[in-house]
Amino acid sequence: MGGLSIWHWLIVLAIVILVFGTKKLTSGARDLGNAVNEFKKGMNGDSDKPQARLGEDKSAASAEQKQHDNAAQ
């Protein structure tokens, strides 16, 4: 009594599939998986794109500084 058996969960699953449809459920699961992967990358610091931008900005800034220094002399 009080607990839900496997049959209860199967009926709930069938109702959810009927209400939302399989296409919305699969796209929602895919979006959730992508969000979790992005979160893990952010926590581990595995994001390559911001580091590449920082390196490019530094080289561009140093090149501009050299041109400015040469023009001042």
Could you list the spans in which at least 5 consecutive residues all have pLDDT below 50? Answer: none
How many strand elements?
0
Q: How large, in whole angstroms, is the Cα Rg?
A: 27 Å
Mean pLDDT: 77
Total number of domains: 1
Q: Proportion of β residues?
A: under 5%
Oligomer: single chain
Termini separation comes to 89 Å
What is the helix tally?
Answer: 3
Shape: rod-shaped
Helix content: over 70%
Question: Structural class, judged by helices and strands?
Answer: mainly alpha
The largest sheet, given as strand count, sense and whether it forms a barrel, is: none
Q: Element order, helices and strands?
A: HHH
Describe this structure in words.
- With 73 residues, the protein is mainly alpha-helical.
- It has three helices and no strands.
- The protein has one domain (6-72).
- The protein starts with 5 loop residues before the first helix and ends with a helix.
- The mean pLDDT is 77.
